[in-house]
Request: fold
Amino acid sequence: MLIKQFSRRYFARKVSFMSRRFRSSEELSSKHYDIVVAGGGMVGTTLACTLGKNPKLDDKKILLLESSKESQWKLPEDYSNRVSALNPANVELLCDIGAWQHIAGARCGPVKRMQVWDAMSDAAITFDNDNLDKPVAYIVENDLLLDAVRREIPDSLEVVYQSKIQSCRPPEEDQDCVTVCLESGARYTCDLLLGCDGANSLVRRAMGFHHISHNYNHMGVVATLKLPEDFDNVVAWQRHLPNSGFLALLPLTQCLSSMVWSTNAEEAKRLVKLPEDQFVDAINDALWKVYPKSGLVNQAMQTFDNLIRFCNLPSSSVTQCPPKILGCDVNSRAMFPLGLGHATNYVGKGVALVGDAAHRIHPLAGQGVNLGLGDVICLNNVLGEAAYNGSKLGALSYLKEYETERQRHNVPMMLVVHGLFQLYSTEFTPLVLLRSVGLQAVHALAPLKKLLISQASGLRYWQT
Ligand SMILES: Cc1cc2nc3c(=O)[nH]c(=O)nc-3n(C[C@H](O)[C@H](O)[C@H](O)COP(=O)(O)OP(=O)(O)OC[C@H]3O[C@@H](n4cnc5c(N)ncnc54)[C@H](O)[C@@H]3O)c2cc1C
Reply:
């Protein structure tokens, strides 16, 4: 067994050494890497760090290129308005690469329960662990996550900041190397280029990937909100509002929550400009206002509830009242455009797309960066295997494994989220009825609810 492993590794190193030796004159005039990671956002940096720490890739030269400046980040007193709800699988990933200790040692908000409810009916659903003992997610500031991962980047990994990629070229037919050119004039070649350069990915465009996109004409208004001190702030709240809006509150501390309010562009602009007291009133209104409800929907829900009880299934969720918002942190208000995007393929010869470069999703299920970090876990395994078996890192056979596994996960998630956005963008009674009874059904059918949770948590099985 040991001999087999040794000979595999020896062969792998030999192939990698040989493929490094024979380069064209153009490649020789530029610096060559086994892997170039394009884009050092949350996903690209975590990917580079994870690959750099993978023992199966320890003889590989890895370069991370990021267009922004290197900044000496220090945890500010005020919370950032850009946060992510990280699922348990990705917390595990960050633990594995040593980054989670920096986050846990600084600050993050555990979410012990999630409550989603509809303003147009009495439908509601909750997600939690049985005894509320383990968090279902953690709310982490994006800047803190990035800093925590950067601190764990191994010395072997090269990082170049202020290195905006201007163009890249796929391998010629008889060659294996991808060429990457920077605005500064520097040029690199690599066996594998990993495009982590976000929703407007240059790598995706330059490499000719087919991409579909949709603009929701919605903005996500974000802010850090003040809550009463005596409130046990461990619940993530999400209320679906008439006309396709939704408002989510994500717990940061005992008395602070981060808000994302998805609404049409005009309303978003109005909300961002409101004086603070009126802005807070608008949020409380969105959380508490009682809207007229259809008698037909109420009656159908009651009938369905009776049926559920008759079948001895769990009936309506026990819901809690959301907190009253007291104020909003100065300068924490901002808005971001929301859209959907998906590359038909995630891989080509010598190139793979990762994170928002491959898929962009509406934040109503808090899945954007979670899908990207799920890509990281998968790609790290696939590339480790390829190297261990002596295969080229840019070989399509291995990269296709990554594409298949991730599209099987990401596409259904994107369809569900897009479908929910559409289903909640109407006050048309039959559709309000459909979504309300649908929510009751998901709550009643425990295996279906568990399946949804395990998809969102990134774990194969829901851990209780
Ligand atoms: C309002 C809002 C709320 C959200 N909430 C959540 C949430 O709760 N949970 C969640 O999972 N997701 C959430 N998301 C989504 C999440 O923020 C994104 O999915 C995530 O930021 C994508 O990360 P990324 O690293 O793939 O891309 P990006 O963050 O876009 O990073 C791309 C990086 O590439 C660099 N770059 C770009 N072009 C070049 C180039 N030519 N050369 C070199 N470098 C380049 C950029 O400087 C950047 O650093 C939310 C999004 C919004 C808008």
Summary: The first strand starts at residue 31 and ends at 38.
